[in-house]
Amino acid sequence: MAVEWYLQDLRGQSGPFDSVELRRKLKTYTNFEHVYVWRDGFPDWKLVSEVFDFIDDIPGGKRVKWRWASYGLIIGFLICASDGFEWRGKTFLAWQGNGTAENIGYIAGTAGTLALVFLVAGLIKDWNSSRSKIRSNLGSATSEKSQAVPLKPPIYMNFVAKNWRGDYRLWVSYWIFGLIGNVAIAIVPLGLAEIFRSKSGFQPINLFAIVVGVWISIIAIAVWQWVGVWRSANNYIEQRSLQLKGAPWAGVAKIMAVLAFIQLGSSAVTFGLPQLTEVTQIAFFDDPDIPNYSIRIMRNGTEAEITGGIKYGLTSDFQKIVRASRQMKIVHLNSIGGRIGEGEKLYNLIKDSRLSTYVSARCLSACTLAFSGGNGRVLRHGATLGFHRGSFAGTDAKDSAELQGQRKIFTAAGFDSHFISRALATPSAEMWEPSESELLNAGVITGISNGSDYAASGYNEISKDSFYKSLSKARPYAAISVRFPKTFEDMVNEYYNGFVDGKTETEIGASLHDRLVKLLSAIRHLADDDVLIDLGNVLADQLAALKNQSPTACYRYAAIGVLDNSSSQIPPAIIKRELDVEDRIILTASKRPGAKEPDKDLWLKLFGRLGSKGVTKEDIDLIGQSNVAESQKGRYCSVMAALYKEIAALPQREGAMFMRSMLSDK
Questions:
Q1: Cα separations in angstroms, 568 against 70, 182, 537, 575
Q2: Dihedral angle at the C-alpha atoms of 162, 163, 168, 169, nearest 10 degrees?
């Protein structure tokens, strides 16, 4: 049975025709741009030019020379545009003066040369076509008559629809629209970022819109590219098969389309899904993976502390506080970090408000951006600054927007360039914690504090319960919580109220120490005998260590029990022994009825032992005086150290008797 053909043009549908009638009908057209044919076996209408390779012997047949020349022109312009990325090295000169003319000449020469080459190729194609007869499958195939002929031609004729249907030649779909699609994918994020740009910086809803828009665009463009390639390849394979020819390149193109879809799916799962999940949590669920933040005002509004995560809303809330507290000078930062974008906003607010920054515990990751904005940047001795490069949703790019933002801020803050490189070379899964000397030398911090200049800060939780737990782990307060719970509760209240009032660590510590000294002074003489002997040895060693550093400080400690700020001069081993003894005093102190005072013979025994060590009667009289000359304070200290040492060397019962007597008098 002869093949029956149907014809569709702008005037409508006609047919069926046999091969001879169709040939005669086609000769009446001068342009085949909107002329389609269909026969049984075709899935849809096809352009005449897709079905028949050679139609140039038909009057008005379509020539390819100018169309090919336009392809060359387009390719030339695309090559010049890609040179802007310097993929072949620097091509363009500076766009000024003679450089502008040179660049225009280069573009015109490149595009014009390719247009000329393609024009010549088109002329050759047209010349060969003019010598050939129409070669088609007008009578090459037989099949049963279709039971359902399409009634409407394609509605959309723009290049997007035509590529989607596979109407273009395979090389056009694969190379031209592949390049156009890739350029579009590169431009879309820039356009979305500009559309959703916020003057106030980091905005979760805008970020959500950008990420969603980018991935929708990537998927849509990629699908459009490769569906067009797939359909164009199918058309090419069918066309070649009607001519009894193979189409290996069409098979390769389809394989590349499959691989491209697999790669797109992998990227969507590896990068797209984590990013969409993260921006959804940021925009609609208050970023649950980052701790909540809190802001505390201290010292009559002159200082404030920010604790918790650096997350959206923090800068806005802190800005309200800064505006309401014009006297604010210092902001304490205690954070594990959070969002780089919010860290940049906080940096700008601190910098514009000319606040100083202070870290008493730790400031990590995005927190260091806020810290960098300080007019002065101070670190408490022992506190930590932690650096690494930022990341987003499972990525850890070495050249990302987050990384460039960090570099810009650190550079503006005056950090050493080598320090910045080291900090940003640290992967986001790791943390670099430079030493205090490294931070000073790199200009990251402007000073180190012992905490006495600032309100106490750096606690992750501020409540009486948290302070209770914290103090109950410290020595000797843990022992006090067991033996004297009411006294311990008063100490916790003192600690908490001092913190809330904005007192310094030194002030709070001194207040607690005063309470501790009063308690120990009241119960030391009630401890067990062995504890008192160990206390005598500790006191002797403390006085000896203090005398070598400061006779005056040693005298004050020996005479009235005031240690001043000289505790740092006592070796750590002795301090540990003192804490051990204080724990034992608290745990063993109890009423001891019938405690005896040393008698005359026992005093003579002690004086004799002291005399053998070089202690004279004048020395004994010296330690009994209430006012001691400055020149004698060192001697006073030496005699007291010898006295405690000899008491501790007596038999335990006798030594404990002396210690109880001496401690009861204080």
A1: 85, 67, 19, 9
A2: -170
Whether cis (ω within 30° of 0) applies to the bond prior to 16 is yes
Residue with tokens 């190729």: 121
- pLDDT tens for 110-157 read 778 878 877 777 777 666 655 443 343 333 333 333 334 444 555 566
Distances (CA, A) of 80 to 77, 87, 106, 207, 460: 5, 11, 8, 33, 57
Q: DSSP string of 144-211?
A: PPPS----S--S--SHHHHHHHT-S-HHIIIIIHHHHHHHHHHHHHHHHHHHT--TTS--HHHHHHHH
Q: Which residue has the tokens 């927007």?
A: 401
Q: Which of 517, 443, 442 has its CA nearest to residue 477?
A: 517
- pTM: predicted TM-score of the whole model, two decimal places: 0.59
pLDDT digits (tens, 9 = 90+) for 167-217: 888 888 888 888 888 888 778 776 766 665 655 555 777 778 878 888 888
Query: ω into residue 572 within 30 of 0, thus cis?
Result: no
Please provide the DSSP assignment of 410-446 as one string. HHHTT--HHHHHHHHHS-TTS-B---HHHHHHTTS-S
Query: 48-62, 257-271, 599-613: which range is least confident on average?
Result: 48-62
Find out whether 623 and 640 touch, Cβ atoms under 8 Å: yes
In order, the DSSP letters of 220-231 are HHHHHHHHHHHH
State which H helix or E strand residue 634 sits in.
Answer: helix 633-649
CA angle at residue 411 from 348 to 202, to 5 degrees?
A: 35
Q: Would you give the distance in Å from CA 343 to the centre of its chain?
A: 9
Under 8 Å between Cβ of 163 and 22:
no
Strand partners, 502: none
Q: For tokens 């408000």, what's the residue?
A: 353
Reference 177, options 190, 193, 160; nearest CA is 160
485 Cβ contact partners less than 8 Å away, ≥ 6 residues apart: none
Handedness of CA 490, 491, 494, 500 (dihedral sign): negative
Asked if residues 464 and 496 have their Cβ atoms less than 8 Å apart, the reply is: yes
The percent of the chain in helix, strand and coil, each rounded to the nearest 5, is: 60, 10, 35
Q: Residue range 405-434: average pLDDT?
A: 92
State the Cα–Cα distance between residues 512 and 474, nearest whole angstrom: 12
Summary mean pLDDT of the chain: 81
Do the Cβ atoms of 62 and 32 come closer than 8 Å? yes
Q: From CA 3, how far away is CA 22, in angstroms rounded? A: 11
- DSSP string covering 224-281, please? HHHHHHHHHHHHHHHHHHHTT---HHHHHHHHHHHHHHHHHHHHIIIIIHHHHHHHHH
| Inter-helix orientation angle 633-649/551-560, to 10° | 50
φ/ψ of 625, rounded to 5, equals: -85, 150
Q: What domains lie within the chain, and their CATH numbers? A: 294-449 (3.90.226.10), 527-665 (no CATH)
